[in-house]
Amino acid sequence: MREVGEGNVGQNVFEPVIRAIESNHRSVYLPRVRGVLPEMLELFDAPDASLVSGARETTSSPLQSLYLMNNPFVHRQASGLAKRVRQFPPSERIKQAYMIALGRNPTDQQEQHAVQFMNDLSDSRLTTEEKLVAYCQTLLCTTEFNTID
């Protein structure tokens, strides 16, 4: 199987191939063919390759949120964040998750919402670990996380 960046770009590149590219590299390293973008770049408002653009617009849309909520990469990162947070006492986990993900402490209201989120999941069959992963995933899917400079 060929890696992103290998081969010729031009007439031999078909739109479905470009749209289906999955890569762990930053988007600056993905191939850019005028008028055709990988799905992820299209969802996150990548600038037009034929125009000079000094800055990217900051947007958020339901499609972006759904993409992040269902993305295996985001789930793996949430699991990694939960693993880091789990080393702290239970009373400190929410604060530490905020500090690691967003670089700040949660507000009192956010902390209350987090506790309520974890308690609401108590009726489900999820383990404590799965609840923590689910909460970490919500932090990674927030607009605040996705727009951090």
Structure characterization notes:
- This protein is mainly α.
- The protein folds into two domains: 43 residues, no CATH class; 85 residues.
- The chain contains eight helices and no strands.
- The relative contact order is 0.11.
- It comes from Novipirellula artificiosorum.
- This is DUF1553 domain-containing protein.
- Pfam families: PSD1.
- InterPro entries: DUF1553.
Provide the fold topology:
Layout: H1 15-19, H2 39-43, H3 62-69, H4 72-86, H5 93-102, H6 108-120, H7 128-140, H8 143-146
Helix pairs in contact: 4-5, 4-7
List the keywords.
single chain, 149 residues, mainly alpha, 2 domains, 8 helices
Write a short abstract of this structure.
The chain has 149 residues and is mainly α. 49% of the residues lie in helices and 0% in strands. It contains eight helices and no strands.
Catalogue the unreliable spans.
Answer: none
Helix and strand sequence:
HHHHHHHH
What do the pLDDT scores average to?
Answer: 78
| Structural class designation | mainly alpha
